[in-house]
Amino acid sequence: MLDLYLLKYFLAVVEAGSFTKAAEQCYVTQPTLSTGIKKLEEQLGHQLFERTRKRVFVTEAGARFLPRARAIFNECNMAVQDMTAQEDAPLLRLGILSTVSGDLIRRLLSAFKQECPAVILEIEDGSEQELRNRLADRALDFVISVERGEHDSQRSTTLLEEDYLFAVSSDQSFPKGAVFTGAGLSDTPMVVRSRCEVLSETSRYFTDRNIRPRLVYRTPNDVRALEMVAAGIGGTLAPRSTIGPIDGLQARPLKGFDYRRTIVLMHPIHRLGEQNIPVAKVFQETAQAVFSASVPS
């Protein structure tokens, strides 16, 4: 008989790609998690992971075991939810990509709570892949993230399409114009948003122009990055909606940097409880209304 906590450890390592990060997600120490994975491997009679110095990889046996492990873990979660659900308190579980504008999320959740004050909201931040995995595992009902590749209207609803702007402190003096140029920013130190979806494209933009800007700050926190820019520490490239609410910034398009992003609401891929179906409809309609009202001009 497999213990459920061992499946949780296994799925956490697959999702995080690291024993250390998986242990943090499971709120246990790394030795405890490693012991659990070893126990699971002994019970199954197969090695599930191969480790390198930088990353953990799933073995062929682990890949075969993965869909069954997810199915078992999901069914157990659904059983618990069905037993504990309260008809008078619908639950909506939302995953949010960390680079989506906090101001837009604040407005969305405020509007939704006005429409459905009795609904319990459980919210989780994460990367694109983490949130997709959580949605596939039925651990989330909706995900607000970016769309990669062709849009599937059956599985997601487009909320916002936007470009990227280069932001610097409003105290800094630059030649007047509608756009910044790579050459014009050659002496500007860079603040790096480490979770930016176009981080590699940004680096390539400057490299192709033989520009090597000095990197002075790196953070996964977008608000912190933009606050540093407003303080005059350097400049950074960020989505238009993220820059808007921050005071002390001036922002323009970057000439030749034509990348855009599409923010979507990913729909549930599992059956919602009866009391959650009308709630989900209200949430989707509210998200469309809030995001469409902020479409960049």
Write up this protein:
The protein has 297 residues and is of the alpha/beta class. It folds into 3 domains: 4-84, Orthogonal Bundle (Arc Repressor Mutant, subunit A), CATH 1.10.10.10; 91-159 and 262-292, D-Maltodextrin-Binding Protein, domain 2, CATH 3.40.190; 161-261, Periplasmic binding protein-like II (D-Maltodextrin-Binding Protein, domain 2), CATH 3.40.190. The protein is built from 10 helices and 11 strands. The strands form 3 sheets. Strands 3, 4, 5, 6, 9, 10 and 11 form a 7-stranded mixed sheet that branches. A two-stranded antiparallel ribbon has the order 1-2. Helix 1 packs across helix 4, helix 2 crosses helix 3 and helix 5 packs across helix 10. It starts with a helix and ends in a 5-residue tail after the last helix. The mean pLDDT is 88.
One letter per element, helices H and strands E, the order comes to: HHHEEHEHEHEEEHEHEHEEH
* Coarse structural class: alpha/beta
CATH class of the largest domain: Alpha Beta
Note the gap between the termini. Answer: 59 Å
User: What is the mean predicted local confidence, pLDDT?
Assistant: 88
Tell me the helix content. Answer: 40-55%
The CATH homologous superfamily name of the largest domain equals Periplasmic binding protein-like II
Subunit arrangement of the protein: single chain
| Contiguous helical run count | 10
